[in-house]
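User: Could you go from structure to sequence for me? I need the amino acid at each position, not a summary. Structure tokens:
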């Protein structure tokens, strides 16, 4: 038994030496490489199954030669070069570590059955030692190299991403600064709304409404809109719930901190702000545009009124002249006595009143021509009181004069200014109760950019209701039972022709106060047409 056992050991040793790896691998080279490639292409979801066959034949061929050197000569230089090559190639292609490890293991799956068939099962162990040593070295070496290069790739990628982030951050910061500069420097108000409250506003928006930034943020947007126009914005919250690329344009009256109202146009649009769907708005003051549109409408209406007035006045004046002439002839008839004479006088008076109305209409229809000259304004005002002395006496009115003695000579059209002041005084007399008081004043304002004089006329009657304060300057608007409604319109025209304005004081609690504001300088002696 011992001899047999010893003889058995001797056979194993001899058999081991008898198996020649070099001859085996050289003889089976082509078969091993092709089977290895076939296994790779048939590996299902493995990324090798998607590689071209010619590429796998090349890489498997290099792997075979490297394994040959290790198994036959224990030379690891070739396998080291191949591992470095295949690691970079597969890492670049996005292969997973286990996919390449399994590819190396397939070499054993291909070679082992062939070795078993040639060497015999009883002699397998010593034959497989070089094969296992080769594959163990290859797989562990490859894993280390793959991990090393993968980590280096991650480090390089992180550095690249960091550099790109820094560049993008710099670009984003610059873009944000440009955007903020654009938004902050524009003259239109810009704001963003969340849930009906202002979460962002630029300086122009705050300036338009007269508030500091801290007093605007987180406030309801409707706070900056007059009550009458808030209904226009009822749908804004619903409008902001879903993205909507078309802008909504609205006109409204904005409300400032000092309770003043100004016409405003807002363009509303939906966007994302602070990572949520928001409503943004661009507000623009349209005061000048509204004034210009009103002036254009007024000019067109005045031109139409002028044409109609001139035509009607021509058609009415001739019959009135005939009526007046015949009434004057009848008045000389001695046969008319008592009530008949009184009826003639009433008729003549009414004809005269109609002629005055026609003259007023014609004056309104004609372009205003100024004849400027130096004038003592205070003396002119005093003469206006003298001309209306009888009117004041009928209602027992007292007129208080308060004339600024700093006013010397002002260049203006004295006839037109006298006409305007008399119209204001007539309105004051009409509005005053009996035994009432009227105040007439002048004031010099040298501190204004253009020095100006102010003529003030105040009564203590019922006053003008706020709702009609603007309408009273419109042509033919009147609250009196008699009159054309052109008195204040002509006052406004006279003021505008002189480069001034007429205003009504809404702050007083009783009566009405009008102010005729005129520049204290002008073109001396130069006629101006308006």
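Assistant: Here is the amino acid at each position, in order:
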């Amino acid at each position: 038994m011992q001899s047999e056992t010893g003889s058995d050991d001797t056979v194993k040793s001899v058999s081991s030496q008898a198996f020649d790896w070099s001859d085996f691998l050289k003889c089976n080279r082509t078969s091993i490489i092709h089977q290895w490639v076939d296994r790779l292409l048939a590996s299902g979801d493995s990324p090798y199954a998607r590689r071209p066959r010619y590429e796998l034949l090349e890489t498997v061929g290099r792997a075979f030669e490297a394994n040959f050197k290790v198994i036959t000569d224990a030379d690891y230089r070739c396998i080291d070069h191949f591992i470095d090559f295949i690691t970079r190639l597969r890492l670049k292609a996005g292969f997973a570590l286990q996919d390449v490890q399994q590819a190396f293991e397939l070499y054993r799956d291909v070679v082992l059955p062939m070795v078993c068939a040639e060497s015999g099962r009883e002699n397998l162990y010593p034959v497989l030692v070089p094969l296992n040593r080769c594959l163990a070295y290859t797989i562990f070496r490859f894993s280390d190299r793959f991990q090393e290069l993968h980590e280096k790739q991650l480090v390089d990628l992180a550095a690249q991403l960091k550099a790109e982030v820094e560049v993008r951050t710099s670009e984003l910061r610059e873009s944000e600064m440009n955007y903020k500069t654009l938004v902050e420097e524009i003259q239109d108000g810009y704001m963003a709304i969340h849930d009906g409250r202002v979460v962002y506003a630029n300086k122009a928006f705050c300036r338009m409404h007269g508030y500091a930034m801290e007093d605007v943020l987180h406030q309801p947007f409707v706070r900056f809109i007059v009550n009458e126009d808030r209904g226009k914005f009822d749908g804004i919250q619903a409008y902001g719930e879903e993205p909507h690329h078309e802008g909504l344009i609205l006109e409204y009256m904005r409300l400032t901190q000092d309770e003043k109202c100004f016409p405003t146009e807002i363009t509303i649009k939906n966007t994302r702000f602070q990572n949520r769907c928001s409503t943004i708005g661009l507000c623009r003051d349209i005061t000048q545009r509204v004034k210009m549109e009103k002036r254009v409408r007024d000019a067109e209406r005045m031109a139409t009124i002028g044409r109609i007035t001139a035509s009607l006045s021509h058609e009415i004046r001739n019959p009135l002249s005939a009526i007046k002439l015949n009434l004057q002839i009848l008045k000389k008839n001695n046969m008319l006595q008592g009530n008949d004479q009184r009826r003639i006088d009433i008729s003549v008076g009414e004809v005269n009143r109609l002629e005055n109305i026609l003259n007023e209409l014609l004056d309104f229809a004609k372009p205003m021509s100024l004849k400027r000259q130096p004038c003592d304004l205070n003396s002119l005002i005093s003469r206006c009181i003298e001309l209306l002395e009888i009117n004041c006496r009928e209602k027992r009115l007292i007129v208080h004069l308060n004339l600024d003695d700093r006013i010397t000579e002002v260049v203006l059209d004295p006839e037109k200014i006298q006409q305007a002041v008399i119209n204001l005084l007539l309105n004051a007399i009409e509005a005053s109760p009996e035994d009432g008081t009227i105040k007439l004043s002048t004031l010099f304002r040298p501190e204004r950019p253009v020095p100006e004089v102010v003529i003030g006329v105040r009564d203590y009657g019922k006053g003008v209701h706020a709702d009609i304060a603007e309408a009273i300057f419109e042509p033919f608007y009147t609250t009196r039972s008699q009159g054309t409604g052109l008195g204040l319109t002509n006052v406004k025209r006279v003021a505008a022709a002189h480069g001034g304005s007429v205003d009504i004081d809404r702050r007083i609690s009783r009566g009405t106060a009008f102010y005729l504001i005129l520049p204290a300088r002008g073109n001396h002696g130069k006629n101006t047409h308006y």
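One structural detail worth keeping in mind: DSSP finds 16 helices and 14 strands in the chain.
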